[in-house]
Amino acid sequence: MSNPQDDARPVSLTTRQGHPVYDNQNAKSVGPRGPLTLEDYQFLEKIAHFDRERVPERVVHARGAGAHGVFTAYGQVGGEPIAKYTRAKLFQEAGKETPVFVRFSTVVHGGHSPETLRDPRGFAVKFYTEDGNWDLVGNNLKVFFIRDPMKFPDMVHAFKPDPVTNIQDMNRFFDFVSLTPEATHMVTWLFSPWGIPANYRQMEGSGVHAYRWVNAAGETHLVKYHWVPAQGVRNLTQAEAEAIQATNFNHATQDLYQAIDRGEFPEWELRVQIMTDEAHEELEWDPLDPTKLWPEDRWPMLPVGKMVLNRNPANVFAETEQVAFGVGVLVDGLGFSDDKLLQGRTFSYSDTQRYRVGTNYLQLPVNAPKCPFASNQRDGQMTYGVDGQAQGANPHINYEPSSRGGLVQPVRTRGPEMAPRVEGVVGRQAIDRPANYLQAGERYRAYSDAERAELIANLVGALSACNPDIQARMVDHFAAADPDYGARIAEGLGRKVAIAAE
Ligand code: HEM
């Protein structure tokens, strides 16, 4: 790769006000030894801007790498026209292209933390569709630790460093997890080699939640999204990850940037699992539960399109840092399910982004839709333009309805709005079919011997640093998932084998 720093074309330096900077080496002083003068606007402006160079990091997923690309639809799903299931325009025609911006990330630690840590990886895709933006904000693993959004801030606090020592502590992690039985499945993925993807290009993605699709007749299905890398999947053992980390803490960002830079564009196929839109009482588990996956033998992975990443961001801060993905950002034909974790996320993302990036974060080029848009939202910090001007809207009329022109509600032409019927008692309540250990046990038995050995070694290693009561509770969870699982962890920790049942 050529060194990007080597491009030596000179361009004249100015201030942000457009004034030429004839001397960028010396602040204006009284005599060569100072003091400095307050009239040196050029210096004050430069330092004042520098003082504000950082915005708050993402509270989670702070360390990330981004890229631009394109999504190409196949126009069908499972041998049928995709219109049977969804009217979303981006999927309809074979060969239809939609620009995307993708951000991969680690979760727990800060903006420059090592990329070799055992941690879920974020896989967030912004589709700039002709109907507005669609954000699919997923992870590499297909399930999650918890199923109720009320628990998320506590979970994140337990996973992040101790507020007094500033050290991440497995006692905190497993204290929380051992009191959260629904996390057993996710932990069984996370401590296997799947918990450290080799890089971002050889990693899967998953929307995790059940979403909904709606067709032109208003009929709905439940759907799960998955990204499958054309590069294949590669994970690291703990020892391999430690060897990389000894010399390089940016290896995944570097791998992605350099591959795109040399024209080796990474590619993923988008596959979906489709289920009828019902409670599916016949299952032992709830299809809306994000701690469960839908077994592929019953709900096959059906390809619907592919995505190629072909351009590095021109600037990391402007694009990768300020990009704002939101779980509530959907287009016509796509919808939510009643998954409670998903609904809690829907509030959280845009809320944090109004704070993290600013009120007008949607005016930034990386976040703005690429289709025409016109709202009556006005003002606020850093307002960059007035919506609707490009389409010739009357700039005086910033309200609706109005008899004086201005923006009008478009007429719905695409079929009825998704209108699920819900009924129930309002209250704080857990789901009926938790089945906390079922898929953890299935996963444990599905691993190869080598993956199982690595899982046991990693868990024993991490739990060895934990207090005995926490170890005991974790052994109980693993034994409930599979007696052999519990026995091997107990043996590794030098504990008596626990017999527990759900
Ligand atoms: C109630 C549960 C959750 C809450 C409240 C939550 C909240 C958040 C927040 C506040 C951010 C920072 C966003 C920003 O500053 O731009 C974030 C980032 C992210 N979350 Fe979640 N999260 C939850 C669960 C999940 C789950 C289940 C997944 C995966 C399916 C996920 C994937 C991501 C990803 C990929 C990012 C980074 C997006 C980016 O690259 O900008 N989160 N989350």
CATH topology category name of the largest domain: Catalase HpII,  Chain A, domain 1
Rg (C-alpha, Å): 26 Å
Shape: globular
- What kind of oligomer do you see? single chain
Description:
The protein has three domains: 12-53, Cytochrome C Oxidase, Chain J (Irregular), CATH 4.10.91; 64-161 and 197-363, Catalase HpII,  Chain A, domain 1; 438-492, no CATH class. The protein is built from 13 helices and twelve strands. It has 502 residues and is an alpha+beta fold. A hairpin with a 2-residue loop joins β5 (121-129) and β6. Strands 1, 4, 5, 6, 7, 8, 9, 10, 11 and 12 form a ten-stranded antiparallel β-sheet that branches. The chain has helices at 41-51, 89-92, 152-159, 170-178, 184-190, 238-245, 251-261, 316-321, 340-356, 438-446, 449-464, 468-481, 483-492; strands at residues 64-73, 76-77, 80-81, 97-106, 121-129, 132-139, 205-206, 211-214, 220-229, 267-276, 302-311, 334-336. α12 (468-481) packs antiparallel against α13 (483-492). Protoporphyrin IX containing FE is lined by residues 58-61, 64, 103, 105, 122, 124, 137-139, 144, 149, 152, 208, 290, 323-325, 341, 344-345, 348-349, 352-353, 356.
Keywords:
single chain, 502 residues, alpha+beta, Cytochrome C Oxidase, Chain J, Catalase HpII,  Chain A, domain 1, 10-stranded antiparallel beta sheet, two-stranded antiparallel ribbon, binds protoporphyrin IX containing FE
